[in-house]
Automatic annotation (TrEMBL):
Chain coiled-coil ranges: none
The keyword Endoplasmic reticulum is annotated on this UniProt entry: no
Start and end residues of each HTH araC/xylS-type domain: 178-275
PROSITE patterns in UniProt: HTH_ARAC_FAMILY_1, HTH_ARAC_FAMILY_2
Keyword Transcription applies: yes
Pfam families, A to Z: AraC_binding, HTH_18
The protein's name: AraC family transcriptional regulator
Transmembrane segments: none
GO MF annotation terms: DNA-binding transcription factor activity; sequence-specific DNA binding
């Protein structure tokens, strides 16, 4: 794990962790959710920026954020979690989690021997207002055991993959292409073409584009557009206007940005969040 500033809140049914000095996200662990419970939730606040590498867990996980920027890498793909979107990681899946300073996020662990879902692999889950409130009620309220079990079963029943594109990006494995991808992830507004990158790396732009498409399924240009739209989701969910977000990402015309967003996701920014019932998204994002 990189970084030293974090606060871990021990929540309902996680007393086995105690006041653990380090986040358990790094470790291979035995199950945290004891019988007869289906799930348990922990809250983590990153105060100075954190990276948890090579996490592998005996239980399924649902990771979602309340504020800040959270990135999850799993199954060869990179995900971001704007408010309203959770990332489901199946038990046994190696993953990396990065949280920027000030990020508050939750990790809900599901007992894999008592919880089954009709999908496999890492996927985006829509955090509707109802689902989010049930998760937080389960972790904080004093409840009769029978009531808590019914709430937990309802939570499981409400889990559903998002129907809209969740803007995950496939990462290249070639070290040279991975360096290009990581630079774009650091600075999505960079407008370098495949020819520019080829010149830097001593190969033709056509070679860069052909290899990038072979490894990721997208041209370098389309991959960068997807990265930009992912970054835009985080900013819009945080309450920033579409105009300012578009400008930060290198678009002088907001209508061009909205058109590309629609081409990438099938929706305008406001309709995208509505399409999976995102919780807590009002104001600017809802008017564009």
């Amino acid at each position: 794990m990189q970084g030293t500033g974090q606060m871990i809140e021990t929540l309902w049914a996680t007393s086995v962790l105690g006041e653990h000095p380090d986040s358990p996200l790094d470790e291979v662990r035995t199950a945290l959710t004891g019988e007869p419970w289906l799930l348990t939730t922990q809250a983590i606040t990153s105060t100075s920026g954190e990276r948890w590498a090579d996490g592998v867990h005996d239980e399924h996980e649902l990771i979602f954020s309340d504020s800040g920027v959270l990135t999850v890498e799993a199954d060869g793909r990179l995900w971001v979690t704007p408010m309203g979107l959770g990332i489901w990681i199946p038990a046994g899946m190696t993953h990396h989690v990065t949280a920027e300073p000030g990020t508050l996020f939750y990790v809900t662990y599901f007992a894999r021997d008592r919880v089954s879902v009709p999908w496999s692999g890492t996927t985006g889950i829509g955090l509707t207002t109802l689902l989010r409130e049930l998760l937080l009620t389960n972790k904080s309220a004093m409840l009769d055991d029978a009531v808590r079990l019914r709430i937990q079963q309802l939570i499981v029943d409400l889990l559903a993959p998002v129907r809209s594109a969740s803007l995950d990006v496939h990462l290249p494995t070639d070290p040279v292409l991975r360096a290009v991808a990581e630079e774009i992830l650091r600075n999505p507004a960079d407008s370098g073409t495949s020819a520019d990158w080829g010149s830097r790396l001593g190969v033709s732009g056509r070679t860069i584009n052909r290899r990038f498409e072979r490894e990721t399924g997208s041209s370098l240009t389309q991959w960068r557009i997807t990265v930009r739209m992912r970054r835009a989701l985080i900013s819009i969910a945080a309450g920033r206007s579409v105009v300012s977000v578009a400008r930060d990402l290198g678009y002088t015309n907001a209508s061009t940005f909205i058109q590309l967003f629609r081409q990438t996701t099938g929706h305008t920014p406001a309709a995208y969040f509505r399409s999976f019932g995102a919780a807590g998204l009002e104001g600017d994002a809802g008017t564009r």
